[in-house]
Amino acid sequence: MNAPPPTLESLWRCLDGICPSTIATCSADGIPNVSLISQVKYVDARHVALSRQFFNKTTRNVLENPQALLVFWDPVTLQNHRVRLKYVRSESEGPLFEDMATRIDVIASHTGMTGVFRLLAADVFEVLSIETLAEFLEPPPPDAGPEILPPVAGVPTAARSELWALQRLIARIRQASELDELLRTVLQTLAEDLGFDHGIVLVADESQERLVTLASHGYDGGGVGSEIALGEGLIGTVAERKRILRFAPLGSALRYGRAVRDSLQAAGGTLHAEIPLPGLSNAQSQLAIPLLARDRLLGVMAFESTRPHAFEDWHEAFLSVLADQFASALAHVLERDEGEAPPAPRAASRERPQPSGPRHAAASKPGAGPRTAHAFRLYKNDDCVFVDGEYLIRNVPARILWRVLTSYTQDHRTEFTNRELRLDPTLGLPPIRDNLESRLLLLRRRLELKCPSVRLVGRGRGRFALEIDGKVELEERQSA
Question: Which pTM value belongs to this model?
Fold first, then answer.
C-alpha cells in the first residue's frame, strides 16, 4: 500500500530552520532565480509564510509570476521535499508579521544589524502540492522507540503525560512559600519531568530596562546576578515583545549574550557587572517565555539544550499555561504585605560583635572560626560594591548591603527587617512593586558565590540576620 502524501503538519521539523530552505521563482519573461529563505512559517494546513528582508529578485518574480517551488529537508532523516506554491498576499502588520519579525530581530541583535536586517513583509503562499523525492536516501534504520523520560521515584513511566507533569508542577508551585523555594522548584521539576536540564529565571530590575538572573539549573557557574537589556538577544527580545520564542540552532548569532567581557581595566574602568549569562557553548535549541502578571513583565524563563529538537510545538503550549501560574505565584511572593514585627531590642546578646579598630573594622563572634578579614568597597558614582577587589553587586542590592554592613560596624546590629528597608529613602526602592524579596535573594546568592563568610540568613517572614565569620572593613570612594 502506498503511503499517504505528506502534509505540512507531518513535516514540522522541516520548518524549524535547522536546514535552510530554498525557493525557486521565475520572472514573467522566463528568467529563473534560486534563493535561500531564512524563515518558513506554518500558517495553516494549506498555507506557509516566507520572510522578506529585502526587495530582491525573488520578490519581483512572485509579483510578476506568482508560482514558486520551495525545497526543504528533514534535519533528522535528511529526506528532501518539494512544495509547489502560489503567492497569495504580503502582510506587514498583525500577529503573523509580528511573530516572524521578532525572530528576525533576535538574529539582528546578535549580529549588530539591528534596524538593517529586519522583516519588511511576511509573504503568504498557498501550498498546491507536496512531493517527497523517492529514493533520495537509503532506507532509514529501525525506529529506536520513544525517547525515555527522566525517572521520577514512585511514578511509572507509562502513567506520565503532559497533563500529569503540569498538574505536578502547579501543585508544587502552590506549596512554595518563599521566593528561593519557588524558583528552585520550577526549574528542578521541569528538569525531572521534561528533561529541561539547563534553565534560568530572570526578573526585571528597578529600571524595568534590564533583566537580572535570580536562579539557574544545570550550569556549573550559576550566573546569578548576570544582566541582559530588554531587546538584547533572545531573552531580551522575549522580554521586550512579551512573547514566547523557540529557536532551532542558528549558530553563534543566537547564543544569547554569553560572551564574558574583558577585564575591568580593558573595559576602560567601568564598574558595571561582569557576570556572564549562563549558557552552553554547544547549545542546539533555545526556548524563552515571558512571565507576565496582567500584561506587566515580571521576568523571563529560558531553557536551552544540546539536542537539536529538545523543544517542540507542544512545549510552547505547555509552558504558556505553566508561565501564567508561575508568574501569578511570583507576583504574590514579590509583592505580598509581609506584616513584620518591629526590630528586636538591641540589648540582649553577649555575642554581639564589637568594633575593633579604624576603617569600620568589626570582630567576629567568639568561636566563629578563623578571623578572616574581608574588604568591602563602595563606589558611589557607579552605585556598586566590590569585595576583596572583585565586583560583587550594584544598584539597589548594593545599597542594601552597604546599609546592613554599616549598621553592623557602627551600631553592632545583626537583626533586620524588610519593612525598615522599605522605609529607608536612601535605598531608592520604588513605593509600589519594589521587588525587595528578589533583591535580597540576589544579594544572598552573590554573597554565597563571592564572600561565603558573610551571610544573610532568614529569621522568619520579613526578617533576616547578618552573620559574619571574621572581620569586615568598609571603605567608600566616589569613583574608580
Answer: 0.70
